[in-house]
Write a structure and sequence with these properties.
single chain, mainly alpha, 0% strand, elongated
Length: 96
């Protein structure tokens, strides 16, 4: 988080959560604000990645619905097993 772009924001937290944050801040020798900012930044990054993964799945499903192209589980599993064993092989061909 950039210090020059930081703007204050208000967050309502219950007393127990506030105490937990304060305890973490003391043990990490950081401010409560730093702990909260770090937590929010990590949450947002994680959720953005999750949403991108979800959108990729939707896009793949829509593409499959249009074309019918796919790889069977057995073909994909065999290909991944070979990759895992160190063989550098091309992925299986998609088919209808």
């Amino acid at each position: 988080m950039s210090a020059t772009a930081a703007k204050p924001i208000s967050v309502k937290l219950d007393q127990e959560t506030r105490l937990r944050i304060e305890n973490l801040a003391k043990s990490r020798r950081r401010s409560s604000h730093w702990i909260m900012g770090e937590a929010i930044q990590q949450y947002v990054e994680r959720e953005e990645k999750r949403e991108a993964f979800r959108q990729a799945g939707i896009q793949a499903w829509n593409e499959y619905q249009k074309t019918g192209l796919h790889v069977t589980f057995d073909a994909a599993d065999d290909w991944l097993s070979k990759l895992e064993s160190g063989k550098d092989i091309e992925p299986p061909e998609c088919h209808v």
